[in-house]
Amino acid sequence: MNFSNIYTALCSLMILGAVSASAQKLPENYKLVWSDEFNVDGKPDSTKWKFEHGFVRNEELQWYQQDNAWCEKGLLIIEGRKENKPNPRFKAGSNDWRSKPETIQYTSSSINTSGKHSWQYGRFEMRGKIDIGEGLWPAWWTLGVQGEWPSNGEIDIMEYYRGKLLANIAMGTDQRYKAKWYTTIKPVSELGGKEWAKQFHVWRMDWNEKEIALYVDGILLNKVKMDKLHNRDDKGINPFKQPHYMLLNLAMGGENGGDPSNTAFPNRFEVDYVRVYQ
């Protein structure tokens, strides 16, 4: 008896069963409308993604650049590095957090589908593996195509920092740049801690005319009815009744990420696939 062949056959059956089960869970009449499997080595597909550059948001420590993201062996790699290089935006005496530091200490990448692909409603899935080192802030999220943040709407399908996963939905208020948040927090320690983080996991959003629901590995993290998601201002627009584009990034430090100074670098946010069903 060839136990190797039996083992291989069993593994194949398990994989087929998992794929079948996943397909059966799709809402009725849904089909795959967009995906990136990251199967072509090299830079991310420029017909699907574009890069952000420099210091971008949240007073984060990393400088976003193209060099830190590439596809390899069927995975998108977003690599955080500790580097020391001149800040091109440096201005002596500046109080702007982007131009105040003379040097860049960390680099990473952030890619998004803005201006290339956007979607209103559907099932969104991402299979990925995150590093849970101190000060790291990986995320997979969406923003509405129209309006100023946060009145354009934000959905954080996967966000991690300071030992916890977050599933967030944000909209505008009557104060500029101040958001109303619906947030659920799940400590990674409850999922298995460092051992859990060594594995790939599936994050999912189900978004339709009635609600937005966010999951990890089939575990419901957050669900909010659409009638609660209007902006809290005199217009009262619901920013989730418009197309959103998606972002993938690995941030560090900043307003929420924590202190990465004792974390080993380089480290990675790895993505197996991103898929959208409608």
TrEMBL record:
It comes from the Bacteria. Gene3D superfamilies: 2.60.120.200. Residues 19-278 form the GH16 domain. GO terms for molecular function: hydrolase activity, hydrolyzing O-glycosyl compounds. GO terms for biological process: carbohydrate metabolic process. InterPro entries: Beta-glucanase-like (IPR000757), ConA-like_dom_sf (IPR013320), Glycosyl_Hydrlase_16 (IPR050546). It holds the Pfam family Glyco_hydro_16. Keywords: Hydrolase, Signal. Transmembrane segments: none annotated. Residues 1-23 form the signal peptide. Belongs to the glycosyl hydrolase 16 family. This is Glycoside hydrolase family 16 protein.
